[in-house]
Amino acid sequence: MNLAPYRAHRRILTASLVGTAVEFYDFYIYGTAAALVFGPLFFPSESPSAQLMLSFMSFGLAFFARPVGAVVFGHYGDRIGRKSTLVASLMLMGASTLLIAFLPTYAMVGWVAPLLLCILRFGQGFGLGGEWGGAALLAVENAPPGWKSRFGMFPQLGAPVGFIAANGLFLLLGLGLSDADFAQWGWRIPFLFSALLVGLGLWVRLKIGETPDFKEALEKDAPVGVPLSDLMRHHLLPTLAGTFAVVACFAIFYLATSFALAHGTTALGYPKEQFLLIQLGAILFMAAGIVFAGYASDASSAQCVLTWGCGATVIVGFLFGPALASESWLLIFLGLATALFVMGLVYGPLGSWLTGLFPVRVRYTGASVTFNAGGILGGAMAPIIAQALADRGGTEMVGLYLALAGVVSWLGLMMVRRRMADQA
Questions:
Q1: Which of 83, 150, 221, 380 has the fewest CB atoms within 10 Å, counting from its CB?
Q2: Residue 206 lies in a domain
Q3: pTM above the 0.85 mark?
Q4: How far apart are the first and last CA of the chain?
Q5: How far is CA 51 from CA 36, 179, 358, in A?
């Protein structure tokens, strides 16, 4: 296996991976805290199910902030460059996460507590809206010929790295603290710890330069005045296709992580620490799926791998609920591991596939808007709809949402099938 391109671009690939790992760590610790403690701490209700629903709604708020951040950061990323925009998005995300550690609870200040939580959650989503697209461009626009998907998989690998760091820390806290201490103050520690990770991400990103593709585009012509306007007028079809195509990866991830953790440790009564450990093992299969998809996409095409992944998502949808409710740790692990491996198939090639839909002049905006708008359809509503389906028809009903997400993403791929075939 030829590793020379990786060695030559080590700093670039590290910056794309470390930055997204930090960003996703910040995002995941909120998701885990929302599943475990935010309901009773920040939202008044006599029903634990209603508290959990409100907590998940605050979780989903960031998904609606992400397209706004995608437009703003995409605008500057397409006009002034990838590097400075990526630094700004990381700082906003990090600051919002750190401040959550200092929030008062509902018992302390009443309605002000959930208001402040939602404001900072919006800030998290706003920052992340500019993160993924820039990190993907940083990797893909520096890739040698024939290596775009393998380079493009590095930002995606930040997701399992961030997840392992977040849930691993929550697991250690759960083992070392009583439930009362964790609910009272222990949950704040992961948010405080994020400051160190953000500092590491900034240190790496400040040492990189601008991408060759962006430099070449600037030499040929002036930047687009309003990238979003140009995107909507001249690239509407790929924008819609890209939005639909990313629905499956978001749906799988948030059902197999945040929803599974919350539902499994409350309605199904599984021990929290053991379930976190099962998830930590299963997330390794997501990393394996991302790496497999990166190599397979360069060998065939990203379009082909994503299509197979969407078909697998539909199948997983019918197996996920029964596995989660089986009360067998082996079946629960196999269900989560299979779902997250398939998530790697529909997530790993997105860096090269989405960026390939748009010209350099609007690529930051196009990739960011489609990725984050798709997150609303696949991610923001996933835990909420899954909880409602579980309340109405049991855990076995939850997988229907996954199956539908796979069909939606497949339709998005079909919308630009000819375009991607011509590029190949």
A1: 221
A2: no
A3: yes
A4: 23
A5: 11, 18, 42
